[in-house]
Amino acid sequence: MMVLDIKFTQNDNDILSCLQLRRTVFIEEQQVPESEEVDGEDNDCDHVLANFNKVSVGVARLKYYDSFVKVQRLCVLKESRGYGIGSGILNFIIEHVTKHNIRHTIRLGSQLHALEFYNQLGFIEFGDKYLDAGIWHKDMEYLT
Fold first, then answer.
1. Which residues 6+ apart lie within 8 Å of 84 measured at CB?
2. How many CB atoms neighbour CB 77 within 10 A?
3. pTM
4. Which of 90, 50, 40 minimizes the C-alpha distance to 70?
5. Which of 27, 82, 108, 139 is the most buried (most CB within 10 A)?
6. Are 87 and 50 in contact (CB under 8 A)?
7. Per-residue pLDDT reduced to its tens digit, 31-82
8. Which residues pair with 140 in a beta bridge?
């Protein structure tokens, strides 16, 4: 049986798994410059880690602002895409933010190719498209 376990990081090993996943997806696969991926903000954020059959396959980072929570660095390993892991991570975050009444808005910057993925989960686009790490993005938000 396939088991998907999504949780907030519990220890340094979980954080290392998150950083390695991000390195694999953003720096190696998408060619994001390391200086942009490693931005020094990880200690100021919460991290969500997805394990599929006890193997770390997906991650997201949450940064808290006065009026919203921003989902950052959401990624799933290439070979693990298409199994609902990314939507599982986002639904975990939405449920957490809503249940604990943390903020009324969740925001993220979506790569243009992923807009429909986020739309299906209830995120709405706003603003103009912009270049981030050499990749076109658009801001999106979800109202809790």
1. 4
2. 18
3. 0.94
4. 90
5. 108
6. no
7. 999 999 999 999 999 999 999 988 999 999 999 999 999 999 999 999 999 9
8. 108, 125
3-class DSSP state for residue 123? coil
The CA-CA-CA angle for residues 60, 61, 65, to 5°, reads 140
Burial, 55: exposed, middle or buried (Cβ in 10 Å; 0-12, 13-18, 19+)? exposed
At 120, phi and psi to the nearest 5? -65, -20
Distance from chain centroid for Cα 84: 13
Phi, psi of 137 (to 5 degrees): -130, 165
Q: Label residue 67 exposed, middle or buried (CB < 10 Å: 0-12, 13-18, 19+).
A: exposed
Indicate the DSSP class of residue 121: T
144 closest CA partner among 95, 108, 104: 104
Superfamily for the 4-143 domain: Gcn5-related N-acetyltransferase (GNAT) (3.40.630.30)
CA angle, residues 47, 50, 51, in degrees to nearest 5: 135
| Helix count and strand count (H, E) for the chain | 4, 7
